[in-house]
Amino acid sequence: MGCASSSPEADAVVKPPPHAAAQPKAPSKEGVEPGAQNGAGATASPLYAAQQSAKSTSQPAPPATPAATPPSPSLGPGGAVNQSLKSLSANEANAVQATLLKVSTLIQKFAEGRSERTTPVQAVRRALNLVTADCRAKYSSVSVLSETQEHALLVTAVGVPDTVHEGNRLLKVPGSNSSVERILQKGTDFYYWQPATPGPTPSDWSALASAAGLTYVAAVPIKVSDKVIGMLTVGFGDTAADEADYIMFPTYLQLIAASLSSMVKDNSIPKYMTLVKDLHETQDLDSLMHKVVQHLRTVLGHSNNHHVWYRIGLTAPNNTASTIFDDLTQVPPTLMQRTLSNPTGSSSFKLLKEVQAAGGVMRTVVAMKNTVMKIAVHNRQQVMIPDVQKVINQSGNVSADIFNTRLIKPPTSVLVFPLKVKQHIFGVIFCMSSVQSDFSDVSPKLREVCEVMSPHLLFMLTQPLANDYKVGAPGVALRAWKGLGGGRGEEQAYR
């Protein structure tokens, strides 16, 4: 097992996987010349030569040509590419033109996908599906780097089950021996691995290659200007690895990565990195819930919107009860109960102040019966109530998870979204509004945030914070429910 890269020290030829050797190779003078290495360790190709010639148009003119030769007009980028193609063999020129056509077609499809009403991660996933189908790959993924390039977050992947990336979605780059670290260290624009090459396998590709049956994995950095902000990875199995044998393949991936950069630098995706990294640095359950709420407000654009607030419910294992976490630091005076407008001697006001002074998180245990949360968990999808009072008037039922505390006014509208990893639902997110809303602008974004956040949140609950989670949240809820004979139980606590 080994790895190779397009670093200056590496062989200039981009070696194909051994099982593609059956494909006939044209002599170098007749076929496509292998990509050369430039001084920065990037893979150069006939296309890059064309780009360089385009840049050279602004430099001093070469020596004058004989009088018999008419002066050449100034070449634009397109003219530079055409001029460069003339210097290539027929096979080389065909390879460059075919690659440009493939990439331009993909970019057009990317644009069509983004014109639809999609969230940032959905747009990236759609692009990966198109790339995977286009080059007959078995796997592809996009990761995003933190501002300091010390962490890499897997944004989305296609071609393998989610279980392949469990525990490896957030990577601490320094010392990881990962593909990301090697690309950053070598400053290379193309990096690949295959079983026949010497050296250790990148740590993030070892389990992936085994689980997905990959025999060739390649990665290119996603850049904005000269800064690496992410990485595109593509993997092949035995049946289609001849695509990776194509001499223009490094250039193909680099152009795809360049077209993905505008998606990856979308304002939401860097915020996902901040959210996930912050969750992994949390030491206790209440702080974890506080961070989730605060990041939800930031990612969904509600930092200064006092009409919207969030709460989190973690369900008991048998879904009979739940512990609801209210972060009272996000509650302005306008959302407090009317009885708190004159707080003198008010026990509720004193409780509110005590909770806020202790961190702001209050736990309320409720039975799942007659709750909106139960509907969301049972149906495994979001529940939206644009007019809470109207539903109460029609059904005669008061949802215990909506009216769980006397410290906050009941909402006018509610959106409840389940937290799930694979088929396991472990809680819900409440988005609540004091003004009537159908949450059309919130729902798709909230879905995406939950998809990105849920695996990390469940990891923190079941690993570092397992004791507090099992004893202090669902465990308390289950005991309270049993102690009350299955009726509604309330247990409020703060730290």
TrEMBL record:
<dbReference type="InterPro" id="IPR029016">
    <property type="entry name" value="GAF-like_dom_sf"/>
</dbReference>
<feature type="compositionally biased region" description="Low complexity">
    <location>
        <begin position="49"/>
        <end position="59"/>
    </location>
</feature>
<feature type="compositionally biased region" description="Pro residues">
    <location>
        <begin position="60"/>
        <end position="74"/>
    </location>
</feature>
<protein>
    <recommendedName>
        <fullName>GAF domain-containing protein</fullName>
    </recommendedName>
</protein>
<feature type="region of interest" description="Disordered">
    <location>
        <begin position="1"/>
        <end position="83"/>
    </location>
</feature>
